[in-house]
Amino acid sequence: MAAPPLMTVDEYFHTPETVRPSELRYGVLHVAESPSPQHQSAVAQLFRSLDAHVRARDVGEMWLAPLDVVLDDEKALIVQPDLMFISKAREWIVQDRVRGAPDLVVEVLSPNPRIGKTEERVTWFAEYGVRECWLVHLDRRDITVVTCAHRRIAGRRVFARREPLESAVLPDFAEGFDDILRPL
Asked: Half-sphere exposure of residue 69, counting CA atoms within 13 Å on the CB side?
C-alpha cells in the first residue's frame, strides 16, 4: 500500500473549513472525530478562567481550538492545541493563522488521544519555542506543567487537584485543578 501523498501548508489551507480537529504533520493530514462533551466542558472552563485572568491584567490574548498554529511552514507542521496564550509582546504571530509558537499551550488529555501522541506534540512545542505547556489529566484530576527553555523540555511538575498552579508564563495565576474544573 502506497503512502498517502504529502500536502503542503498552502494545500492544507485550501481544504474545506471544518470544526473537526485537523492537523498537518510533516505533510500528512490528520483529522479526528469531535471531542467528547467532558473534554469540551473542560476546555470551556479552562478558557473562562484563563481568559478572565489574562484580560484583567491586559497581558495578551487567550485562544481556543480549532485554530491553526503553523509551527513550521517548510516542514508542513500545523497543530491545533485546545487552548493557547499569546502575550502582547508576541501578538504579531497572529495573522491569517497563528504563525509561530504561542507562549503557553494547554492540552486537555483524553485516555485515547484523538490526534498524535502527547509526548511528540510536547516535543514539537518545545522545539518551536512554546515556553510552557499544561497537560490537563481529567481522569487523574491533575495538571502537569511542562516548562521549555532553549527549544527543549526543561522541566515538569505535576500539580495535584487542590494545589495552586505555578506558571512562569502567567506568574500570578494561582488557581488549581479543582478551582477551575468542576467535577463532571
From this structure: 26
pTM value is 0.91
61 DSSP β-pair partners = 86
Please measure the distance between the N-terminal and C-terminal CA atoms of the chain and give it in whole angstroms.
Answer: 43
C-alpha closest to that of 145 among 95, 113, 106: 106
Q: Which fold has domain 9-180?
A: tt1808, chain A (3.90.1570)
HSE-CB of 22 using CA atoms within 13 angstroms: 16
Sign, Cα dihedral of 164, 118, 81, 84: positive
Q: How far apart are CA 37 and CA 93, in angstroms?
A: 31
**In the chain, domain spans:** 9-180
Q: Which residues of the chain have pLDDT under 50?
A: none
Strand order through the sheet with 104-109: 60-64, 83-87, 104-109, 132-137, 142-149, 152-159
